[in-house]
């Protein structure tokens, strides 16, 4: 293993333990040349996953791309990196267990939304707005209404929410019509 600091390949394993629910081995290594420490992971090579995009093209599954997308939705929200990585881990495991080899990007988006909905509602709406390609304020309002219903708001609370959301979408700075006014 090449040291990320000096490039030397002479290093020793300082610590080794199971990681990612036993699906990987995490190893702490120390470079014998510069004494820098770094972490490596050893895992079983799975059948490569391909993602079928909306335009029909295929691209390899990229865990880091999934994490970045979730991080954008969770920006400035009280969601820890461990939670985001946990979402990515659960989704990747589900896709690997399915063994399909090719997965629609919509399926991944749905899985992310299911997890975010339970962790942070603002992040859920942010992600949904990109994933579902919201074009008008009403689409945001529908997502908020659905969350409120899921959280068990009673009829009075839902009526109040409806009135507030309706007022927000018609006041200056709210939604704009097709002419931009």
Runs with pLDDT <50, length 5+? Answer: 171-181
Distance between the termini: 60 Å
**Strand adjacency order, main sheet:** 1-2-3
Order of helices and strands: EEEEEHHEHHHH
Spatial extent as radius of gyration: 22 Å
How many structural domains? 2
Assign a percent range to the helix content.
40-55%
Spatial shape: elongated
User: How would you classify the helix and strand content by structural class?
Assistant: alpha+beta
Indicate the mean pLDDT.
84
Helix segment tally: 6
Secondary-structure blueprint of this entry?
Blueprint: E1 11-19, E2 24-31, E3 37-43, E4 50-52, E5 58-60, H1 63-73, H2 81-98, E6 102-104, H3 105-119, H4 121-131, H5 137-150, H6 155-170
Parallel strand pairs: 4-6
Antiparallel strand pairs: 1-2, 2-3, 4-5
Helix pairs in contact: 1-2, 1-4, 2-3, 3-4, 4-5, 5-6
Short description:
The protein has six helices and six strands; from the N terminus they run βββββααβαααα.
Characterize the structure shown.
The chain has 181 residues and is of the alpha+beta class. The chain has two domains: 11-43; 50-156. The protein is built from six helices and six strands. It has helices at residues 63-73, 81-98, 105-119, 121-131, 137-150, 155-170, and strands at residues 11-19, 24-31, 37-43, 50-52, 58-60, 102-104. It has a three-stranded antiparallel β-sheet with strand order 1-2-3, with no helix packed on it. A three-stranded mixed β-sheet has the order 5-4-6. A hairpin with a 5-residue loop joins strand 4 and strand 5. The longest helix is centred in the middle third of the chain and has 18 residues, at 81-98. The protein is elongated, with a radius of gyration of 22 Å.
């Amino acid at each position: 293993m090449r040291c990320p600091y000096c490039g030397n390949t002479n290093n020793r394993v300082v610590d080794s333990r199971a990681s990612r629910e036993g699906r990987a081995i995490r190893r702490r290594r120390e470079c014998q040349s510069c004494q820098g420490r770094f972490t490596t992971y050893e895992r079983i090579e799975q059948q490569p996953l391909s993602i079928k995009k909306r335009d029909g093209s295929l691209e390899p599954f990229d865990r880091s791309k999934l994490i970045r997308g979730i991080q954008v939705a969770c920006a400035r929200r009280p969601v820890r990196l461990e939670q985001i990585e946990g979402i990515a881990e659960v989704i990747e495991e589900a896709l690997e267990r399915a063994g399909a080899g090719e997965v629609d990007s919509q399926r991944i988006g749905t899985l992310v939304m299911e997890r975010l909905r339970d962790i942070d509602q603002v992040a859920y709406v942010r992600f949904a707005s990109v994933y579902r390609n919201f074009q008008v304020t009403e689409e945001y309002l529908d997502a908020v209404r659905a969350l409120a219903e899921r959280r068990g708001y009673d009829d009075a609370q839902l009526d109040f929410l409806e009135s507030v959301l309706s007022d927000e979408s018609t006041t200056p700075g709210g939604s704009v019509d097709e002419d931009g006014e």
